Known about the structure:
Helix content is 41%, strand content 15%. It is an alpha/beta fold and 287 residues long. It folds into 2 domains: 29-115, 3-Layer(aba) Sandwich (Rossmann fold), CATH 3.40.50.10860; 140-262, NAD(P)-binding Rossmann-like Domain (Rossmann fold, 3-Layer(aba) Sandwich), CATH 3.40.50.720. It has a 6-stranded parallel beta sheet with strand order 1-11-8-7-5-6. Strands 3-2-4 form a 3-stranded parallel beta sheet, with helices on both faces. The termini are far apart. The structure holds NADP nicotinamide-adenine-dinucleotide phosphate. Residues 141, 164-167, 169-171, 189-191, 195, 208-211, 229-232, 262-263, 266 line the site of NADP nicotinamide-adenine-dinucleotide phosphate.
Amino acid sequence: MTKKIDGKALAQKIQGQLAEKVVQMKADYGIVPGLVVILVGDNPASQVYVRNKERSALAAGFKSKTVRLSDSISEEELLTVIEQYNNEPDIHGILLQLPLPAHINDKRILMAIDPKKDVDGFHPMNTGHLWNGRPQMVPCTPAGIMEMLREYHVDLEGKQAVIIGRSNIVGKPMAQLLLDKNATVTLTHSRTRNLPEVAKQADILIVAIGRGHFVTKDFVKEGAVVIDVGMNRDVNGKLIGDVDFADVAPIASLITPVPGGVGPMTITMLLEQTYQAALRSVTKHDY
Ligand code: NAP
């Protein structure tokens, strides 16, 4: 029988535990985790994400700061802002909300973030650690998916995992994390031939493409675990996933809904990694 993976409930549970750990951290070391979110311009979707991140961070007892910058800011000025937070001791995590305005070279800016504070895991040094099988700061969405699979006791050892979508933010880091757990991983994309047949091999199918209800039951093996990363708006403005939930749920063993699946876990992992960065700043444990 299909079971829904309740990302919202798991996120609440982990964020509750984090809030307790933050109280303990304050008692033990006299610090609380500090997160700064930097938002350039007024992209409406980014505004919503940033507000949600700030609300969750404050609820867990973090110091949270949002820096809102004009989209006319120069690359040099933005680098100065990043440098300021790299050097601020009570900030342990720096999140630069993407996308950046077109005149700014996002690669140069992301490279400027101190890898120890790179809670989104996009700095090439963190990407390198991940690919070397020694993950440090990991992109939050795949990290959240791994947490859900662990919570729901999904055995990955030797299993066929198929990922649809090869972005740097989701698909590629997801592949490495699954590989680390000894899954056999296939990473597919827009040029993959016979995609439904390839996807149908999957014991675990992860979909991150950004096309509403693209994946139907024709892509899914009976009993597969299906993780839907997509966040799309239908013609009525309703939030929908990349997976046609109603079509796929009857044959999946586990499936994430949209909303209430992957999304809440992404924010939770952002908080978790900021907490870990704060802990490392006092215990001086290896980064
Ligand atoms: P992205 O950077 O646009 O990458 C999309 C990927 O999907 C690309 O690799 C692309 O292939 C592939 N693709 C597109 N159309 C395809 C098709 N018809 N068949 C097979 N592959 C196809 O997207 P992203 O940043 O990874 O995000 C994907 C979705 O996840 C979006 O809806 C986004 O909003 C959502 N998202 C959600 C969260 C969350 O927290 N819930 C976090 C991040 C992203 P090519 O490489 O060949 O172009």
